[in-house]
Amino acid sequence: KNQVEQSPQSLIILEGKNCTLQCNYTVSPFSNLRWYKQDTGRGPVSLTIMTFSENTKSNGRYTATLDADTKQSSLHITASQLSDSASYICVGGGAGNNRKLIWGLGTSLAVNP
Amino acid sequence: EAQVTQNPRYLITVTGKKLTVTCSQNMNHEYMSWYRQDPGLGLRQIYYSMNVEVTDKGDVPEGYKVSRKEKRNFPLILESPSPNQTSLYFCASKGWETQYFGPGTRLLVL
């Protein structure tokens, strides 16, 4: 069964600290792994997209990693800011006849001053 | 500015009263889709369209209709809304890699 699981479900950190969010996926055949940021009540915004052959991709203070062997991805946020408070959603993209996006439930991040 | 727009942003209606949520994109994307988002369930795809006049069911299509007569527009139609369709709805369009989402439509069906 295709699925994406994220941990932790929620996280609270202090402004300026780093954090890492985890994603385990079971998507077959697998094509790509995406991370989105979703502010409360707004549409998701794409942060990174990695194909199965990529190990890491950065977007400013956001760095995503991908291990296709263990089917794990992580999103690392450096020097967090209050505006980083949001839900971060991991999405697995299928390939071939399974070209669907499998959405995780997200990690809710709160950055406190 | 590249964007996806949705209207209305908020809607309260009663059971059985037909409604349409409009969606428009200005990026000339061929692929568009509709999602609903519910607490604890994440985003679920309702319908998608690969191009004009080409639409297909997503994961939760029951109770919804769509049409794609022009590339830029992809309206979502609820012929007879029911309370279980109370949700936050997002329209999205996809270019080569990136999917762009609209601001969302919050629907309450009484």
Helix-strand layout with pairing:
The complex is a heterodimer of chains A (113) and B (110).
Chain A: E1 3-7, E2 10-14, E3 19-26, E4 30-38, E5 45-51, E6 56-59, E7 62-67, E8 72-77, E9 86-94, E10 101-103, E11 107-112
Parallel strand pairs in A: 2-11
Antiparallel strand pairs in A: 1-3, 3-8, 4-5, 4-9, 6-7, 7-8, 9-10, 9-11
Chain B: E1 4-7, E2 10-13, E3 19-25, E4 31-38, E5 42-51, E6 54-57, E7 65-66, E8 76-78, E9 87-94, E10 99-101, E11 105-109
Parallel strand pairs in B: 2-11
Antiparallel strand pairs in B: 1-3, 3-8, 4-5, 4-9, 5-6, 7-8, 9-10, 9-11
Q: Can you give a write-up of this model?
A:
The complex is a heterodimer of chains A (113) and B (110). Chain A is mostly beta strands and 113 residues long. Chain A has strands at 3-7, 10-14, 19-26, 30-38, 45-51, 56-59, 62-67, 72-77, 86-94, 101-103, 107-112. In chain A, a hairpin with a 6-residue loop joins strand 9 (86-94) and strand 10. The model of chain A has no long low-confidence stretch (mean pLDDT 94). Chain B is mainly β and 110 residues long. Chain B is 0% helix and 53% strand. Chain B has no helices and eleven strands. In chain B, the strands form two sheets. In chain B, strands 2, 4, 5, 6, 9, 10 and 11 form a seven-stranded mixed sheet that branches. The mean pLDDT of chain B is 95. At the A-B interface, strand 5 of A face strand 5, strand 9 and strand 10 of B.
